[in-house]
Amino acid sequence: MTRNTALQETASLPDHLAGRSVVLVGLMGAGKTSIGRRLAARLGLPFRDADAEIELAAGCSVAELFARFGEREFRDGERRVIRRLLAGEPLVLATGGGAYMDPDTRASIRREGVCVWLRAELPTLLRRVAGRTHRPLLHSGDPAEVLARLMAAREPVYAEADITVECTDESPDATTSHVLEALAAWRPPRRLALALGGGDYEVVVGPGLLGRAGAVLAPVLPQKSCVVVTDETVARLHLTTLLGGLASTGFRTSQIVVPAGERAKTMETYARVVDGLLDAGVERRTAVIALGGGVVGDLAGFAAATTLRGLPFVQVPTTLLAQVDSSVGGKTGVNTRHGKNLVGAFYQPRMVLADTATLASLPANELRAGYAEIAKAGLIGDADFFAWCEAHAAALLAGDAAAQGEAVLRACAFKAGVVGNDEREEKASGGRALLNLGHTFGHALEAELGYGGILHGEAVATGIGLAFKLSAALGLCPPADVERVVAHLAAIGLPAELHMLNRRFSATALMAHMRRDKKMRDGQLHFVLVRGIGEAFTKGDVPADAVEELLHREGCAA
Prior knowledge:
Helix content: 40-55%
Number of helices: 21
Shape: elongated
Number of domains: 3
Radius of gyration: 28 Å
Number of strands: 16
């Protein structure tokens, strides 16, 4: 390779690699040192071999260190050396075959670098290590048996690496080119750290995360044992991919499949899920993973909160509505004949893993329903975000991955900020209750139409329109803001007004549902109203006749 070619490849590397080290992991014989030297030259970075650095510091070979002090002492020293190397300037680092097995070392690599697993088949490794005398682990028996045993133990951990490159019998230069191509194509998922009273956790957002679920979840679920709860529809679409992503890193899994839709969000189904968890022999560290929309997340979360007095819980939302709303904040529960979400618990997950690629499987109306919660975030307290929504809603709903990822992160960040200030919705005014913008009307519509008769996001969109109109009728909100909100929601196909539902409603019936809503306090109707876009507030003394008058103006019968 000429110098010009090397410079060209270096110049073409993506910006996200700037300032990061590249760490090569894999079994002995994978080629970490030979490929690492070539990779460093082509990236213009220094190269270090962890084993060589250890030998230099100790003044003796790795084999001698094993013989004198044993593997445990060697691993302690190896951990310190790798931490020191990664704390300096960016470099290409080749690690020893067992280094990545140490949890602290893996954490250091995740924090400071991009990890590349050089994966090779057993015959290839055997040919490469034949005759080598400096590999202490090969002295413990037949090399083929030793390597096969190491592969079985280590490959599920190597699979936590950011990138996997298959190493065949091709030249080291060819494999180095494959590593460069993989680095150029790699994009880290976006992460949002949440600090809530019930526990700190991350929302991880990006395409293809189901297939890498084991790698992403291993740091927060080190016991690698879980039960996946999903519904019949999502199971057909995504369960196999999730289970494969978990199995690649050695997770032990079982699954519980419930009916799809709001009809599954009952005490009876909850009891069946709890029985399924107990039948699976769950222990206190067995995790419950909710794969699906808001119904599955609420149901599985409630089961996780109450089984054995609390099991680790992970949200893997597959709908836009769940990714931006129900998966964040820790509300779990089921419906009863008395109303929606009246039995449940506040229970925060260990992580939210939002694979935006799953959104491609959603019908258009469900995607729009999820968008209602995104717009709601801007309408409550971020006028600039609502302006962003107006500019990007069409692209988001058309499947633009960048717009979807940005919307999920911004909506989750907004919700977390509200929830962090009032996790259990205990404040007399403001606080978490602000997230109910549109929900008092929306829940009444859901109850009247029967759960499942209208999508939650559609009901919320209609409720938002009504909340803005009620605010204007009470002299709180400029009519121009009402028109702007209704026009935007209607333009993207959401029912921002009652007549858009093509159904005749009774004001008396809707008022009765609202009076049974869990947001009632001291017998009074509580609403989230607005002084304008981005200026929501809670109000507990809304006159019932003002609400009824609005419903009549919107075409409701008495």
